[in-house]
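This section describes the prediction task in plain terms. A model, or a person checking by hand, is given the sequence of a single protein chain and must write out its three-dimensional structure as a string of tokens. No templates, partner chains or ligands are provided. The sample shown here is typical of the held-out split.
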Amino acid sequence: MSYLEHTVKSVPTGLRKILFMNWPLAILLASVAAIGFLMLYSVAGGSFSPWAEPQMKRFALGFVLMLIVALVPIWFWRNMAVVAYCISVVLLLAVEFVGVTGMGAQRWIDVGFMRLQPSELMKITLVMLLAAYYDWLPIKKTSRPFWVILPVLMVLFPTFLVLRQPDLGTAILLMTGGGLVMFMAGVHWAYFAAVLAAAGGLVTAVFQSRGTDWQLLKDYQFRRIDTFLDPSTDPLGAGYHITQSKIALGSGGWTGRGFMQGTQSRLNFLPEKHTDFIFTTLAEEFGFVGAFSLLGLYALIIAFCVTSALQNRDRFAALLTLGIATTFFLFFAVNMSMVMGLAPVVGVPLPLVSYGGSAMLILMIGFGLVQSAHVHRPRGAI
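The expected answer:
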């Protein structure tokens, strides 16, 4: 048997691919989503509407999409990486002209049955493009300046478009996620040290620009930073969100007040209780035990993704898996830091738990790519 024959025969084909999916990962995703359904039911006062029922339908659709994407060979997604990235860029540009405005930002496109947030799609397609780029690029060229500039431009262009919406949280996630994929691909650490030094200078410039004609951030973004540094300066205004969030977190104690017994959410003291601040509702009702359990499920999802990537000898598949795992980690890490007062409020939802349509569907498609990489990696005799 030739090497080619062995490789072809060691990759599952047909419906047998379903048997080789990473089912523990799928079960973990469903478990996290189930916690989300439970909390959305609670914050609605014991009703499946208006949040829990639509979220269940979206997750069911997302799970089916994950299975469909998983059954498609990974080489197809490698070839589609540039196309997917370009589609995301076109959609981001479309937001400028036909975007729907909500909560002071123009981030969505109304497609009839749902509001699509192109910046969510960019988080996945950017990882696809970077993984395909470093799969194509010889490893010895990875740290050469010219070949570093190209992926930097791939990251900065959509980041600039997202900042125009404005959406600082997603822009930070795009830059951080893209940078981490480059680091995992083998780009020399000195580039990242230079970026961190430049970031320090940028932060200084941002604060120096406040109140000038060339102000770099919106006024509400500066208020978020002020609130992060000292929420007590405006407890009933800009500091209200984080103050109520900390009260909810602290009142939960070790085991929580009990299901549907949280006073902050039930009495509507907690803002955005079904989206960005849903983690505080969980912590209030189920306490430290419930919050840590969710964090444990998230950690297991990351662990299964990393394990799958380390077992995959295909460079594109491994980088894609690690990149999506990194994006997922940044999602929940930023959200939890935000609601605990460890980071400014930047409007990042809790993945698979917060209420939302496009974020849920696109994230499940991302995990479909992880499943495709897992299913189609060469194995021994099967």
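For orientation: The mean pLDDT is 84.
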